[in-house]
């Protein structure tokens, strides 16, 4: 699949680049995409929720009254869950929500997500670019020139660039990622992918 290369001003450079068929041209495997997105979202959960149970409450453990002969119900101590302020029954405990997904499935999911974006015409390839200093205005101007500012763009770089990252950080709904850190959720969550020219080879190495 050949794609035209443009510069950051949105102008055609007259050059094209071949997107690898084994990464951008496969039949999307929806189930692997679902598994990998589920794995990613599960990993974002802290799992630090906790409520105090009966044994963890502060309060006397003295039995409130004898077991029989009062005409009332059987009661234990003041930390009884039936009382207001007592411990919680089967409350949440810290846990790990991580889901294990095979590496081959994760790579298939990324290829499927990239292929789906390519088929939908939601991939733009730009020449490699750098900023001398962090400039949000320049990055916003690039998105406007490419006509993707309102489409939840995900800009993928060949390698991490601090100035470009800082330029993008304050723009609403715009994200940036180096190719080696690209994941299925980011791809599917983006409205359009803006790929730097050098990112394509890096994507091929991590997804193939």
Description:
The protein is an alpha/beta fold. The protein folds into 2 domains: 2-45 and 102-207, 3-Layer(aba) Sandwich (Ribosomal Protein L4, Chain: A); 48-96, no CATH class. Helices cover 34% and strands 14% of the residues. It has 7 helices and 6 strands; from the N terminus they run ββαααβαβαβαβα. It has a 6-stranded mixed beta sheet with strand order 2-1-3-6-4-5. α5 links the parallel β4 (153-157) and β5. The protein is elongated. The mean pLDDT is 93.
In short:
With 208 residues, the chain is α/β, with parallel strands linked by helices. The protein has seven helices and six strands; from the N terminus they run ββαααβαβαβαβα.
